[in-house]
Amino acid sequence: QVQLVESGGGLVQPGGSLRLSCAASGSIAWINLLSWYRQVPGKQRELVAAITSVGTTNYADSVKGRFTISRDNAKNTVYLQMTTLKPEDTAVYYCKALGGPWGQGTQVTVSS
């Protein structure tokens, strides 16, 4: 099973940008679906974005037009480019392979 480690979180002002990375312990080329989720304390984890092995993407309505998911199979890494960030984007962000385990996540805080 491929292990995924998230990084790139931090504190950013509203309107700012961040790029999250998710590095895999092995090849991701064969993984059909890779996704980013986020969770706020006391709320359910929600799907933010997903990408298939052929590059088809899907986004939550709340992030459409602001977030972009991508994958680099050569680097075994999945990215989440986040722009025009809002305070309501504050959460712990997780990446996940279909059928794989959850990682530790990376905290994103949007605040002035």
Q: Care to describe what's here?
A:
The chain is mainly β. It has no helices and 10 strands. A hairpin with a 4-residue loop joins strand 7 and strand 8 (77-82).
Task: Please render the helix and strand layout as text.
Elements: E1 4-7, E2 10-12, E3 18-24, E4 33-39, E5 46-52, E6 57-59, E7 67-72, E8 77-82, E9 91-97, E10 106-110
Parallel strand pairs: 2-10
Antiparallel strand pairs: 1-3, 3-8, 4-5, 4-9, 5-6, 7-8, 9-10
Unreliable spans: none
Give the termini distance in whole angstroms.
40 Å
Main pleated-sheet profile: 6 strands, mixed
SSE ordering: EEEEEEEEEE
- Going across the biggest sheet, name each strand in turn: 2-10-9-4-5-6
The rough form would be described as globular
Mean pLDDT comes to 96
How large is the count of helical segments?
Answer: 0
Radius of gyration: 13 Å
**What share of the residues does DSSP label as strand, in percent?**
over 45%
- Percent helix, as a range, is under 10%
Number of strands: 10
Structural class: mainly beta
